[in-house]
Amino acid sequence: MRKILLFLMLIPAIWISAQSAVDSLLAVLKKEKNPNQITALQNQISDCYKHTDPEQMQKFALLALANSRKNKNIYQESVAYQNIGVSFFIYGDYEKALQNFDSSEKILLKINSEKKEIRETLAKTLGSKGVVYSQQNNYAAALENDFRALKIYEVTKNSLQTSKLYNNIGVIYKSIDDKEKALEYFLKANQTSKKINPETFAASASNIGLIYLFQNKLDQAKKYFDESLKSYLENENPRGLGELYNSYSQYYIRKNQKQEAKNSLQKAEEIFLSVEDKFGLSDTYMFLAKIYFDEDNLDKSLQFSNKSLELAKELNLTEARMNAEKLLSQIYDQKEDQKLALHHLKNYDVEKEKFDAVKNEQQRLKTELNFQYEKQQLEKRENASRERLKWIFTVLIVGIILLGLFLFYRNKEKQKTLLLQKQLTEFEHKALHLQMNPHFVFNCLAAISAFVVQNGKDEAIRYLAKFSKLMRLTLEFSKESNITIDKEIEALQNYLELEQLRFNNKFDFNISKESNIEDDTAIPSLLLQPYVENAIIHGVVPLEDRGFIKIIFRQIENQLICIITDNGVGIEQSKKNKETFVNAHKSMAMEISKKRLETLEQLENKKIELSITELRDNEKVLGTQVLIKLPLEFIEK
């Protein structure tokens, strides 16, 4: 959920009243006869409306687009697409915004000019795309576009637009919970923009205040909020002012001044409604819903939670949907409507699983590494060029030395590239491993919820005790990529006992380990649990008779063999069951486990085999067998 302000990298606004600027440009437009100048003026008028009237902004941008095509002015055509994209962004239609920004970028890349005006227009388009991707929680794409724009502005030495990018990059780092880097970029933006860009100064001050608020430094937070408010009141920017009032509400909540918080949120609501900012409204309604929930005003809280959820669904905001679903579950729980409480809890689990995915963090690291690497390469090439000019008339011996340095440099770069590739593979493996824990917890929590409803307090306590033990094991496992085979067996034993309780002893199980397997034999933690879960849910539970699951660990030469066998309905019948029932269980864990095995294979450079087979006796289905062959590894003591 956005609590800090981004803003689009647009053509710089004239720092006078927006309406006065529009009136002046309209007067010039009436007298202008040159077709290209008319198109440029229409684009400028469109830009002036960006803070006050998105409908007029889009209207003049569309006029500029039509005229630029008619007159074959491809540069003004790119600017028109950019302004149209901004208008759609304000309306909350991010897909159409990106489509128009992409059209602008394609034209500018096709022009391929080194002119400052064209290069900076490209940078503004990239920055605008970065804002949209950031709003969609696609932080990797946001950083990629922001860094590309920043490189252009560093070359052209455009301090004004650089300050805007500093602010936006700070927002992204804040969104991925890197508060130190976020504060570093916000302070850069604030210092750079203090005298040249009131808009960035106000936004960065608001963002710095939020960082201090999260750090519970309330006096410093209030100081920066007040600086931001003063700047916004002097320079018209309704969206920024609305965001600031949202931030003030969180300050007042920390101070336990709930009426002041409500007053701030009412001001924010009025502003966002006036400029049709659905994103800001989604935040405002959620803040109000939480306040009323804390006051036990469940009806009011329910009203604003539903408003926030409706906007979050319309704008496809994963975190906002997650927070709304969680609060709705709590509200219905307080209202003792367990059916709706459980419904929203399940929706919350789905959204939480999406939000907790670590893919964006992995891509962020990759993007940052690439950016730093490219910057270093550019500096080295420039230094090498200066050296060649300096020693061009030197003797042959100097040339031989330079050749030796070149060969050494190339070998060093190869080693560096291999190291980066290995680090990236390790990051991918750790990311996939981290995805297992939240997925498994969500499944267990859903099971506990159902068990409480179905079996009563005493059985629920037994279930929770076993679940607590399993969670302790899971926390221990999360510290390491590999664990001993005995620990894995202990976790599987505990998990199967939990599922036996959940399904009223629907099945029996047996886990065995051959005697030749050493106690310190290593296995990737929680690797087998998804396959065991699949055997239970889709194999033995649908059986009319009692089920049985058998897990065997064997060692053959330099391989650890893991075999999971069930006497369930089989693969084909399981697929039919999923097609028949709309609410069939869906699990990401099988796919995650498969990817874990693939990354392990890359990391260890050893063959790993996985096979899933339906067991048959002629036409009779006997069940399913999962066989995994792993390279034999040992835990270092």
TrEMBL record:
Annotated GO CC locations: membrane
TM stretches of this protein: 391-409
Position of the signal peptide: 1-20
Domain Signal transduction histidine kinase internal region residues, every copy: 428-507
InterPro entries: Bact_2-comp_sensor_kinase (IPR050640), HATPase_C_sf (IPR036890), Sig_transdc_His_kin_internal (IPR010559), TPR-like_helical_dom_sf (IPR011990), TPR_rpt (IPR019734)
PROSITE patterns: TPR
GO molecular function: phosphorelay sensor kinase activity
Name by which UniProt lists this protein: Tetratricopeptide repeat-containing protein
Annotated source species: Epilithonimonas zeae
